[in-house]
Design a protein that fits this description.
By secondary structure, this protein is an alpha+beta fold. Among the domains are: 71-146; 150-249, no CATH class. The protein is 55% helix and 17% strand. The chain has four helices and nine strands. Strands 1-6-7-8-9 form a five-stranded antiparallel beta sheet, with helices on one face. Strands 2-5 form a two-stranded antiparallel ribbon. A two-stranded antiparallel sheet has the order 3-4. A hairpin with a 5-residue loop joins strand 3 and strand 4. Helix 1 (5-102) crosses helix 2 (108-123), helix 1 (5-102) packs across helix 3 and helix 2 packs antiparallel against helix 3. It starts with a helix and ends in a 17-residue tail after the last helix.
């Protein structure tokens, strides 16, 4: 029996559809399983991340527990520590006072005022031993820095016992309209004459080794004598070194080596 061409084409199409059906089913199953596999992998990764965070948290809690134990120990020992500090403070204050009073008298008023304030703080019941100890360390730090620098400041001429101040005419700098600065005497409105004031100059201390004084016109200088607790007049050769030291301290000349006479203790 012969089939019509149209029937042959229909049979061929049916066979092709039946053959392709299994392939379509496999592809669909694969497409459906891919999202599930990715989701499963992400879930595993999330579990691992969670485990890591838990481990870190446990480590942090363990460290905090150790720190809390240390703080509890410190708190338990605090009364004994405070008692030791309280017993040490008066002795330390006496040492600071002795050091300032026996030292060269540079910036002496400022240093004594600082010591007086420290005594007030020590007598204040509102300050804890730790507060007093911090204030003591602050004063000691300042005193330590004095011994490590060369510095200067201005002041009246130093006087020994029974000495009278040297009076000099007071002057002032006046700038005209052209910016030219001239020095003019200061006139006393009562007497109509130039006002007289004690001689002034520069104090320069070389750490704690020496303390010198140089008057403003750099014509005379004095040095503190720690043995006699008085001021000695300096020679012309020493005057040159003091002038150089003052210019260096004021930043008017480059740093250089300075010769200073230093007496050994005793």
């Amino acid at each position: 029996m012969k089939l019509h061409p149209t029937a042959l084409r229909a049979c061929a199409l049916s066979a092709a559809l039946f053959t392709a059906a299994p392939l379509l089913s496999v592809q669909t199953a694969t497409a459906q399983s891919s999202p599930l596999t990715a989701e499963y992998a992400q879930t595993l990764q999330n579990i691992e991340n969670t485990k890591l965070r838990i481990a870190r948290t446990e480590l942090f809690i363990s460290q905090q527990g150790e720190r809390i134990a240390e703080l509890r120990t410190l708190i338990a020992d605090a009364p004994a520590t405070n008692a030791e500090i309280e017993a040490m403070l008066p002795k330390a204050l006496t040492q600071v006072e002795r050091m300032i009073n026996s030292d060269a008298p540079f910036l002496i008023e400022m240093r004594r005022n600082r010591l007086f304030k420290l005594k007030e703080d020590f007598a204040n019941p509102e300050f804890s031993p730790a507060d007093k100890y911090r204030r003591l360390l602050s004063v000691l730090k300042i005193e330590l820095e004095y011994g490590q620098s060369i510095d200067y400041y201005e002041g009246d001429r130093p006087l020994n016992d029974n000495e009278q101040p040297i009076m000099v005419g007071e002057t002032e700098e006046v700038k005209d309209d052209d910016g030219v600065v001239t020095v003019k005497p200061v006139i006393d409105p009562v007497t109509g004459e130039q006002r007289m004031i004690p001689e002034q100059g520069y104090y320069i201390h070389y750490g704690r080794l020496a303390l010198d004084y140089l008057n403003l016109d750099a014509t005379s200088a004095r040095r503190w004598n720690g043995d006699t607790k008085s001021w000695d007049e300096l020679s012309a050769s020493d005057l040159v070194n003091v002038r150089r030291a003052v210019r260096m301290a004021r930043g008017e000349t480059a740093q250089a080596v300075i010769a200073v006479e230093v007496k050994a203790p005793g």
